[in-house]
Amino acid sequence: MDKPNTPSIPNVSPVRFLNEVVAELKRVTWPTREELIKLTTVVIAISILVGAFIGGLDALLVQVQKIVFTR
Fold this sequence. Notes:
With 71 residues, the protein is mostly helical. The protein has a domain at 31-71. It is built from two helices and no strands.
């Protein structure tokens, strides 16, 4: 039975691979320092909000569980 069509891995030397990686990284549009600080602040704020929401929901469900199971 024939093997299914699997993608072949090209045989590339490590030096050529690293040169191509460096070339790709030079083409990347990197954020400015101000953008980086702003976006990091947004991520931290959203993480805190989601954590508070999940924590509050957990506390609420614990109270509901106590009410249901103590009867």
